[in-house]
Design a protein that fits this description.
By secondary structure, the protein is mainly alpha-helical. It has helices at residues 2-27, 34-42, 48-54, 57-63, 65-70, 77-86, 116-128, 142-177, 182-196, 199-210, 234-253, 256-272, 275-282, 287-299, 301-305, 307-317, 320-325, 331-341, 344-372, 378-382, and strands at residues 90-94, 109-113. The protein has a two-stranded antiparallel sheet with strand order 1-2. The chain is globular and about 95 Å long.
């Protein structure tokens, strides 16, 4: 098993590199960039998309970038050149023998554009040294920004996953035992309905019913905590936290437990029909002993072992719409805002970190399989 884990760890390097190359390359073909976004914000246009959607002049601006910067945009070219340097698209190069501080105002110095390949190499070298840079538009480090938004994503991801498992596993086992009965039929209908309801639509329904809409004012409308959170006692803080997180977690869980329930049911049905279960029943073992002493471990292999991957998936994906509906500032909104603003340090820094964590969690998932069922040997399978 040690050799398998080592091989998987070594594969992280080329896999992560491929992820970064692919995404870095794609951004080069997307219209607009951080400088165009800065100009759009400066002129009060909102974001760079409005400039591209507004008229055909955007094509001309994209074709002649320097003219777009210095022409009708109304910003001095010296400022835009300095902005390119600060964003890492260019650098100041001075003549040989120059001993002063590199400055574009000096006749001996000039701006030199940094090529795409070189920019990518500089970025990856910095990431290897765990230097993820600062956001272009927020004046804060990328990791500081991620840590600031992480409590919301952890709250949604952790509790959604836990609730999904707590509901799905008992319900799936019960459906397997009662397969074909009225209970199985009605619960299947409920699961289908829950799966068909979009999370954002269910979130709006919860707001209308329980957050001061047309009916009851039971839960708060926005935020993860109350304004007076710091003044509350420990128990008060815990209660306030769960009071705020109840509706967002329910909205993000509604469809998640459907797939897990059916997976649990099908796993149990497959195991119940096997010979060892028939033998255990023939020996006179109680049905509960058969189900939880023999069937459970084999049936739950794929469900329990997949817990790390499920949690990371919910945690990273985060529901942008649900965060927006409940006014939660999490990683979902951070990713969307970074993409709209072309905030490359945030986009690529978070992509690198999350990609690395995702690959490591894939290895942990394999180890969970071995922990649940020691008979599994990935080395023999590879051979």
């Amino acid at each position: 098993m040690g050799a398998y884990v080592l091989r998987r760890l070594l594969l992280i390097i080329p896999t992560l590199l491929g992820i970064m190359i692919l995404n870095f390359g794609l951004t080069q073909f997307v219209p607009g960039g951080p400088i165009e976004q800065y100009i759009a914000q400066f002129e009060g246009e909102g974001d760079v998309f409005e400039g591209f959607a507004g008229s055909g002049d955007a094509g001309v601006a994209a074709a002649d970038e320097s003219e777009a910067y210095a022409g009708s945009r109304g910003l001095p070219p010296e400022f835009l050149e300095q902005l390119e340097i600060e964003f890492g698209f260019a650098r100041v190069v001075c003549e040989d023998g120059f001993t002063g501080t590199p400055d574009l105002a000096n006749p001996a110095c000039e701006k030199e554009t940094i090529g795409i390949i070189e920019r990518f190499g500089i970025m990856m070298w910095n990431y290897m040294r765990l230097d993820f840079g600062d956001s272009y538009f927020r004046s804060i480090g990328v990791m500081e920004l991620v840590l600031e938004k992480m409590p919301v994503s952890i709250s949604l991801g952790l509790w959604s996953t836990v609730i999904a498992y707590l509901v799905s596993i008992p319900l799936g086992i019960r459906k397997a035992v009662k397969d074909g009965t009225a209970f199985d039929t009605w619960t299947s209908a409920g699961i289908i309905v829950a799966y068909a309801i979009p999370g954002f639509l269910f979130a709006i329904l919860l707001l209308v019913l329980f957050a001061g809409g047309s009916y009851y004012q039971i839960f708060p409308l926005r935020g993860l905590t109350s304004d007076n959170f710091d003044q509350l006692s420990l128990l008060g803080k815990i209660a306030d936290y769960f009071w705020h997180i109840t509706l967002p977690v329910l909205a993000s869980t509604i469809a998640a437990f459907a797939t897990l329930t059916l997976l649990t049911k099908n796993s149990f049905l497959d195991e119940i029909k096997k010979q060892y279960v028939i033998t255990a029943r023939a020996k006179g073992l109680a049905e509960r002993k058969v189900l939880y002493g023999h069937v459970f471990r084999n049936a739950m292999l794929i469900v329990i072992a997949g817990f790390p991957a499920v949690f990371i998936g919910v945690f990273f994906s985060g529901s942008l719409i649900i965060e927006t509906i409940f006014s939660l500032d999490g990683l979902g909104r951070l990713g969307f805002e970074a993409a709209v603003a072309r905030d490359y340090p945030v986009i690529f820094g978070t992509l690198f970190v999350f990609g690395l964590i995702g690959l490591v969690v894939g290895i942990l998932s394999d180890l969970m399989y071995v922990l649940v069922d020691p008979r599994i040997d990935f080395e023999k399978r590879e051979g």
